[in-house]
Amino acid sequence: MPEATLVDCYNKGCGKKFDATSNSTEDCQYHPGPPFFHDAYKIWNCCNKKSTDFGTWLSYPGCTKGRHSNEKPVDIVKVAAVKEIRPEKEEDVIVWNGLNKPAERRDETSREEKSITIETTDGAKAAIQRYLEEHQSETSNELQIGAPCRNNSCKSSYCGPSESHSPCVHHPGVAIFHEGMKYWTCCKKKTSDFQSFLDQIGCEKGEHCWSKNEKVDKLREDFYSANGTITVNLYCKGAMPDEVSVESDGQSMRVKLVHGFGTKESTFVYDLWGEIIPEESKARIGERKVELILKQVDNVKWPRLQFDIAQDAQIEA
C-alpha cells in the first residue's frame, strides 16, 4: 500500500502506521495505562512491565489489543521533535527544586505518639495460612542455641540451659532520633553517627530476655512521594499481622516487625524528613513487603526519607 495512504497510530507502545479504512479491533497492540517513572525505573502501570533502560522499556509489546488511533491526546506536550510526554494534572505533580525545607523540629515532649492502622491483604493472609499448615509439625517453643537477647544493645546469645550467662548490659529506655541526633532516653548520650549509636554500651544490668526469632537489623527498603503521601516499602516475606506495630508522633516513627512467618524480627526507628499525620496514615502487610502509606502535613516532595543534620542544616541556612 502506498506510504501516503497510511497514518501514524498514537496509542502508547504501538507507533505503527495503519490504513484508516481497514482498522479492526485486533490490529493495534498497545499500553492503555500511563507510564510511571520511579527510582530509575520506567514502568507501564497497566501491566507493571518495567526496566531501568529506556530503550528496553519502550520495546515492551503492548498488553492490550484494540483499534489504531491517529488522534493525538489533547494533553500531549511536545518536548522535542522526537520526544513527547503526557503531563499529570498540575495539582497531582509534586516538584522538588532544592528549596524544600524539612519540617520544623518540635521538642519530643510536645509530640504524642500514636499507633498507625495495620491492614493485611488477602494474599498475605492466605500465604501465612499455607505456611502454618505445611510447617505445623516443625513448630517448637524451645530456645535454640545462639538465640539473641531482645534487650536494647545487648550482644549476648543463648548458650544453653546448663551454661551460665553474664548479666545483661542493656539500655532500658527507648531510642530517640531527633534533629539528626540519636540517643537512648535512659542515659541520653547523644551522637549524630548511627553506628556509634548502635555501639553504645548499655547503662544498666539485668536479666536477659531471650528471643526465639532471628534478629534482622536491615531490610531492603525504598520510598516515593505521590499525591500528598509518602510510601515506604519494607521488603520481607511472611510478616505476621498480630506482631507488627507502627507508631509515630508525626516526626519520628517506630516500626516493629515479626516476619519470615514468625522466625525473624526487625525494629526500625525513623527521624522523618517531613511531618506526617499518624491518624490518616496506614500500614499494609502484603505477601512480600510491608507498605507504609504516610499522610503528609504539607504536600511537598521529600529529597530523603530521614532528616540528616549535615545536609538539612545547609538547606535551612
Automatic annotation (TrEMBL):
InterPro entries for this protein: CHORD_dom (IPR007051), CHRD1 (IPR039790), CS_dom (IPR007052), HSP20-like_chaperone (IPR008978)
Any one biological process term the GO annotation gives: centrosome duplication
A GO molecular-function descriptor: zinc ion binding
PROSITE patterns in alphabetical order: CHORD, CS
Entries under SUPFAM superfamilies matching the protein: HSP20-like chaperones (SSF49764)
Domain of life where this protein originates: Eukaryota
The protein's name: Chp-1
Native source species: Pristionchus pacificus (Parasitic nematode worm)
Biological classification of the source: Eukaryota, Metazoa, Ecdysozoa, Nematoda, Chromadorea
